[in-house]
Give the backbone structure.
Amino acid sequence: MEPLEGNAMATAPADAARAITPFDVSANALYTEDTWREPFARLRAEMPLSWRQESPFGAYWSAVSHAAISEIELNPQLFSSSHELGNITIADSPPETSLANFIAMDAPRHTEQRKVVAPAFGPGQMQQQEALVRQRTRDLIDRLPIDEPFCWVEQVAIPLTIGMLCVMFDFPFEERADLKLWSDWASNVQPGRDAEYNARFLAEMQRMLARFDALMEERRQLPPSDDLLSRMVHSAAMGQLNPFERISNLALLVVAGNDTTRNSMSGLIEALHRYPDQLDVLRADPSLIPNAAQEIVRWQTPVTHMRRTATADCTVAGQTIRKGEKVVMWYISANRDEAVFADAERFDVTRDNARRHLGFGHGIHRCVGARLAEVQLAALIAEIADRKIRVVPQGAPTRLGSSFLHGFTAMPVRVVRQ
């Protein structure tokens, strides 16, 4: 990847020669109808970087191969995440709703703020949390009905992830429904949001801020501790954020600590249903469980895309990207790239390079809570494998209408003993 300098501009391909995609892969129907595989396979084969002029989100580049996305991710100077240039999703939000959190910043502010929260997800902290995660998972699975239908999303995926979020924030468990509500509002990427929607969004974010501000003020009066709120208020980089910056970072942590793991937990059930032999493989060799946690993140890809904005004219995959243009990295496609993952559609718990997935991003913006997600997923996989049960879908799931998060709103299942 090279910026275009000097006479390079004269020899660069004309914009008219751009690879023009026939697919608008931002269309919600691709994800609610689960028909996204074919268009992305076509694009990977024919145009790993392509231009879409018209969409509900405006014009955008699609990077769909593992190589192209990795190249973009590893050059944050040329491909900005800044909320001031467009933020991290395909949507162009008005300034008042374009969240200014540390994932939507470039260095050095991104680095400074990330360093504040990163220790809460470090190896030592996760080792301490692992036993709690396993116990919470065991207790929840103990309570599930046998041979009776229920919704996996509502009774397993949401309680496990929201409950762990309460632990990380030291947030009152009895108020956990608010965390889910705020997460849903903060992660909703839709085109054409009107003034009424934006007003409701801001009202919920203000309500979230008021509750967290009260909790952070309590932490401010106490010695520093390991929970996320204490780390924030007692740090130089995040201790004096303005209200909008506080809203932005709280929203990021709520979404990152909930939605992505929640949707991988539900994707696990779909994967094990489509590839039932993989549960037998895990029971025969439980040492594969950590790898299975990586593989379900690859297979499900709970974050469908991230967006960057070009800071200069440059070339990627033989295409000319102009300064200011929107570049969307489709992780969901990269994780099906046969050039990296053999038989990529298959859920394979023995896959030797499952960790090469881009489900948590790549480079300096790789998900700071990735290890917590892995611990939670491994705990759930272990409980299912240990108990000699199968979770059997009882009809088609209802899929999330979003080109940003790849997930489920409902999944009817039945637990059966084997």
User: Anything to note?
Assistant: Residues 2-417 form a domain with the Cytochrome p450 fold (CATH 1.10.630.10).
